[in-house]
Amino acid sequence: MSATDLLRQSAAELGEAVSTGETTAVEAATAYLDRIAEVEGDVHAYLHLDRETALAQARGVDERIAAGEELGPLAGVPVAHKDVFTTVDMPTTAGSRILADWQSPYDATVTVRLRQAGMVILGKTNMDEFAMGSSTENSAFGATRNPWDLDRIPGGSSGGSSAAVAAYEAPLATGTDTGGSIRQPAAVCGLVGAKPTYGGSSRYGLIAFASSLDTPGPIARNVLDAALLHEAFSGHDPRDSTSVDAPVPPVVEAARRADVAGLRVGVVRELGGEGYQPGVQQRFQESVELLESLGAKVVEVSCPSFDAALAAYYLIAPSECSSNLARFDAMRYGLRVGDDGSRGAEEVMSLTRAEGFGPEVKRRIILGTYALSSGYYDAYYGSAQQVRTLVKRDFDAAFENVDVLVSPTTPTTAFAIGERTGDPMAMYLADLCTIPTNLAGNAALSVPCGLAPEDGLPVGLQIMAPALADDYIGLKAQGRL
Ligand code: GLN
């Protein structure tokens, strides 16, 4: 098979071709590494690339296949891995200077499962520092560009992953979604991104941002590929205390079946209308009509508390991050500044954190510390938790009458690099539609639904399902939209 043919195959096809001996893991990895060498200068999707480590993994996979080992449908398929998952053979930075060149002594569970599945990790992808952001501009190591238009953002925080898949620098990528960081980058890069049910994929070895929200998930070019990756790394993990001890919903089977006839679809009134880009609204409307023409029953649904979800998220997520990031104290991990024998530990900690964290991370640590401080706790963190409960209740009430809820994934298409860096509120609004799902712990998926007429850029359709109904989304959405 030619290199171009290899790159054009879906992950499912590529896995099949490796299993039948039509190609090898080494050939597939080589094609992708060559493609990376060609376009990476423009895109900057990766933070760490090491051709030899990738090829050594590929040779190992080919040997395991030759020895008759049963590796599953993605054996030999390359994958781009978000730099928030620990890896023993590559650095892990979470996009932060405070972890520059840090080498983990252990693999994250997601990493372990990619390796067990015989997947070849091409490199680690760029991201907003500690996954805080919607554009990948908060990376300490420079921005990633959107392959559809190099002057625009690829979304964030998993923007390196989405750009890598969109630029054919990987057939698949991992991401994490705390408030939208898989679905939003997938949407603005014309890809499929799934946020599994909270606890459906392991957080062990995932550098924590907001532990009650963080969820690893797949980014791919079609629903079946996303489902295959989802299945490959998800499932119960005794090392994560919030891991769901239940079988992975049959997402692959659902993706292969694809049927929307009789599906009850709720259009969320609060997620649309004023403030949404006209072309986004138009493509969303057409998707809803398409669903209807395929036999789905569409009704409008109101979820009034969703209007307060963004505000609640920006108290809960910073509160959790202020606690999680306390571990970066210059004593145990990564960077240490000013340790010249003349200063005490506290001063070294302070100098290190001042230099090691970027402005957005500092903003959130300050905000979170404030929201959790005595005297303010009830007013801020406590109220936000109450809103969280209301959001969950709105979902539960809606799912009594409909099977899934739909909305645009993002209010606008990819914005220009630099456009929102000076305006944190504008940046936060990119996750307006995705955040409610995280607060409720439910499952959601973004699928491409065309290009906005005014700028020719991809639009995403978000499909939200109840917790542990990840397969329901795939079952109904694949192949029809
Ligand atoms: N953009 C949101 C934030 O900045 C969500 C990030 C994420 O899902 N990791 O917090």
From TrEMBL:
Descriptive protein name: Glutamyl-tRNA(Gln) amidotransferase subunit A
Signal sequence segment: none
Keywords associated with the record: ATP-binding, Ligase, Nucleotide-binding, Protein biosynthesis
A Pfam family per the record: Amidase
Enzymatic reactions: L-glutamyl-tRNA(Gln) + L-glutamine + ATP + H2O = L-glutaminyl-tRNA(Gln) + L-glutamate + ADP + phosphate + H(+)
EC number: 6.3.5.7
Subunit-level organization: Heterotrimer of A, B and C subunits.
Family membership noted in the UniProt record: Belongs to the amidase family. GatA subfamily.
Purpose of the protein: Allows the formation of correctly charged Gln-tRNA(Gln) through the transamidation of misacylated Glu-tRNA(Gln) in organisms which lack glutaminyl-tRNA synthetase. The reaction takes place in the presence of glutamine and ATP through an activated gamma-phospho-Glu-tRNA(Gln).
NCBIfam families: gatA
Domain Amidase: 28-471
Active site (catalytic residues): K82 (charge relay system), S157 (charge relay system), S181 (acyl-ester intermediate)
Top-rank lineage group of the source organism: Bacteria
This protein's record includes keyword DNA-binding: no
Cited SUPFAM superfamilies: Amidase signature (AS) enzymes (SSF75304)
